[in-house]
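Practice problem: Inactive phospholipase D5 isoform X2
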Amino acid sequence: MRMDSQKKIVKINVGKRIALVENIPEGLNYSESAPFHLPLFQGWMNLLNMARKSVDIVSSHWDLNHSHPSACQGQQLFEKLLQLTSQNIEIKLVSDVTADSKVLEALRLKGAEVTYMNMTAYNKGRLQSSFWIVDKQHVYIGSAGLDWRSLGQMKELGVIFYNCSCLVLDLQRIFALYSSLKFKSRVPQTWSKRLYGVYDNEKKLQLQLNETKSQAFVSNSPKLFCPKNRSFDIDAIYSVIDDAKQYVYIAVMDYLPISSTSTKRTYWPDLDGKIREALVLRSVKVRLLISFWKETDPLTFNFISSLKAICTEIANCSLKVKFFDLERENACATKEQKNHTFPKLNRNKYMVTDGAAYIGNFDWVGNDFTQNAGTGLVINQADVRNNRSIIKQLKDVFERDWYSPYAKTLQPTKQLNCSSMFKLNLPSHKAAAYNASGIQP
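Answer key — structure tokens:
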């Protein structure tokens, strides 16, 4: 990129905004007073409608055009992308080489540039990144890939930045790094300077988001994909936990501090150890909200029990864990009902503290960070009491889910009792009003 182009991009913009986007599956019932945010589908369509020059998308999944009744939004998104290819808008897409996608092939035939990354050859991993860049001005990053289920049965969360070319410049370099690996079976020994990070956890972007003073930077994984000045995802997460003074709230689909190979599984202490450090050395309150689904590894309960044991004899040590269970209604459905539905799943992947937030593409599983390609976003804000603060909004979302009837304290031997499901009450106004009353999880 020419230096004069870079200078043009990094000029301070007015009107920088950030918005939380969520996909809430049909049938999830929160109280009327619970916080809700821009629907993911609407946020994505807004970005595509704003596009005038370019759309760059990295996604782990490309399955939008499905015949299932709940896939209509995915089909609309696919049709919009096809429409943009005929409007002289440059479309660049990045996918894992293992993706066998008719959607990608159809877009390629219409003129989109498609790059396939061979993560198996690079690091024995796979691509899990999920972010968009539109017109080098607007950004989406979050848990959802371009899969019709992410717009239907999956509970997803991400953020959209509007008019934030400074952050785009940095994220664009990660996109360029991916694109530079096209047709290559190995990673170069040294990266081009054009791929170096612009901001990191030592040098954060200073900006106003929703009229709130903020700092931000993007991180990357695996470490193999971190050129000079690019923060590794683990280091980004460390910076958020280390800066926490009061609490750390973590919402992930899977929590499994294990590194696995074809022959063995070993303890992976990087994030688990950091949580223990925050609990014991700094008395930071920790809340873990983990999805409970058919693929939940039984060892997850062992690690949770180990974490809980820390606080049994230590003063001012506060750890609570809940499991977010959306499968119970499908597990108790009739055969006829199951034929017309897919299991619902909470796929959120974020952390929020009293001063910062991390939104990423990974669950907290060892192999994800060490082998797979993913991107993270860190935002710091001083005034988190402001309703326009993205930190406060994310905290409110966490507490909404934490106090919902879907969040349960489960034991490893817990069996689903279908008869009890029908006795489950919808969220009470008392539970939903936790934020207004100042009650903490």
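Discussion: The chain has one domain: 3-437. Students who identified this feature from the tokens alone can consider the problem solved.
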